[in-house]
């Protein structure tokens, strides 16, 4: 059990359940550094509020903390987000504290009823910008939809300048450090989190960050990973990630059955490096999708290389194309390389899988069998095109 209540400022506590061993989230997202679920307790003179809860697997630890802090009554559980890693212990908290109500926005209320079957009468609905006085301190609720579900909001503790952001600015990082110290691990965890979860909603995030500029924020307290006592660290990092301009980075992802596509991918990577293009090469059989997503945050170009299997792309290549598409990165250029034995519809299938991306297709190089000298010259010409397009982009 790892859950320790720690006071952030007088009367405001972090109740963080550290999940050192979890290795997948949503059975999709790798968690190489584990994760944490952070609830927060805010004590006003009249009203006590629990902000979010923890994953239901950690509810006993939450109750242990509440007992340790001698919390005899909770007036409201603020739910910033209906996903179960934050809301899943709400039914148990409502049972333990029969006077408590869930304070959230109308959309989130509907989703909590859908997912957790919470009773209608246990809610108090708040609207965008509404302020609730706890006695001596006030909470302000700001709707920030689509980070990353439609009901998401943040809660601002006005007197202390603490912004409770739930997933927003979070990181999947199991650490005993209560606070991020601007270290590589904290920012790398936050970037991975942004890439996997927030990137498809980049344009919403831009608007929400602009809205937050009106607040005096001293502390950003997300519900995953460490707290930011220097909010600028994470706000500056987000500004870089959500910027429209990509960097001088080409991601080359390949899978090879009989070496033909491996030869092409490696030839391209060598040529790009010679021309000053930053490159990340991935073998799709061994790729960590989180690392791939992190590179998509910055990449200007994606090149996919696949053999032809039963008249189409290798399923791993199609999976990568699908993932690239749904993450909606700011990538500008795409190219396809591949090999075939006697034909197929690889090009058509891959391009259809990229329908969300507004990319310029720089070329398709499909080779019959093992690539020869002429084929490799075409690969070098593709490297030339990529290098030309990357001129002027910031180096990684
Ligand atoms: Fe951490 Fe979207 O839940």
Overview of the structural elements:
With 396 residues, the chain is α/β, with parallel strands linked by helices. The protein folds into 2 domains: 2-242, Ribonuclease Z/Hydroxyacylglutathione hydrolase-like (Metallo-beta-lactamase, Chain A), CATH 3.60.15; 250-389, Flavodoxin domain (Rossmann fold, 3-Layer(aba) Sandwich). The chain has 12 helices and 20 strands. Strands 1-2-5-6-7-8-9 form a 7-stranded mixed beta sheet. Strands 15, 16, 17, 18, 19 and 20 form a 6-stranded mixed beta sheet that branches. A 5-stranded mixed beta sheet has the order 10-11-12-13-14, with no helix packed on it. The mean pLDDT is 96.
Keywords for this entry:
seven-stranded mixed beta sheet, 12 helices, binds MU-OXO-diiron, alpha/beta, Rossmann fold, Metallo-beta-lactamase, Chain A
């Amino acid at each position: 059990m790892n859950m320790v209540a720690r006071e952030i400022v007088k009367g405001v506590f972090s109740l963080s359940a550290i999940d050192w061993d979890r290795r997948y989230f949503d059975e999709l997202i790798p968690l190489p550094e584990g994760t944490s679920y952070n609830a927060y307790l805010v004590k006003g003179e009249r009203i006590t509020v629990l902000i979010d809860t923890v994953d239901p697997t950690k509810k006993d630890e939450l109750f242990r903390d509440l007992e340790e802090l001698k919390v005899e009554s909770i007036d409201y559980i603020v739910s910033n987000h209906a996903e179960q890693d934050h809301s899943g212990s709400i039914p148990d908290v409502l049972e333990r504290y029969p006077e408590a109500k869930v304070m959230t926005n109308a959309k989130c209320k509907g989703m909590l009823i859908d997912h957790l079957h919470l009773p209608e009468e246990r809610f108090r609905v708040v609207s965008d910008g509404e302020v609730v006085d706890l006695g001596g301190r006030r909470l302000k609720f700001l709707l920030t939809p689509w980070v990353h579900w439609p009901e998401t909001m943040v809660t601002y503790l006005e007197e202390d300048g603490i912004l409770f952001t739930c997933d927003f600015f979070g990181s999947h990082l199991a650490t005993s450090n209560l606070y991020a110290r601007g270290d590589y691990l904290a920012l790398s965890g936050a970037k991975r989190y942004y890439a996997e979860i927030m990137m498809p909603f980049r344009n919403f995030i831009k608007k929400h960050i602009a809205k937050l500029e009106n607040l005096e924020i001293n502390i950003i307290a997300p519900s995953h990973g460490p707290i930011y006592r220097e909010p600028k660290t994470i706000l500056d990092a987000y500004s870089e990630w959500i910027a429209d301009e990509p960097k001088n980075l080409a991601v080359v992802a390949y899978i090879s059955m009989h070496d033909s596509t491996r030869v092409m991918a490696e030839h391209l990577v060598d040529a790009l490096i010679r021309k000053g293009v930053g490159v990340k090469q991935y073998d799709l059989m061994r790729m960590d999708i989180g690392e791939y997503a992190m590179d998509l945050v910055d990449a200007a170009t994606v090149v996919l290389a696949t053999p032809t299997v039963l008249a189409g792309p290798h399923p791993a290549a199609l999976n990568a194309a699908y993932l690239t598409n749904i993450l909606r990165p700011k990538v500008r250029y795409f190219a396809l390389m591949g090999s075939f034995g006697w034909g197929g519809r690889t090009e058509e299938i891959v391009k259809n899988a990229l329908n969300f991306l507004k990319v310029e297709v720089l070329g398709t190089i499909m080779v019959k069998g093992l690539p020869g000298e002429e084929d490799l010259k075409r690969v070098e010409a593709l490297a030339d095109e990529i290098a030309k397009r990357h001129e002027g982009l910031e180096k990684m």
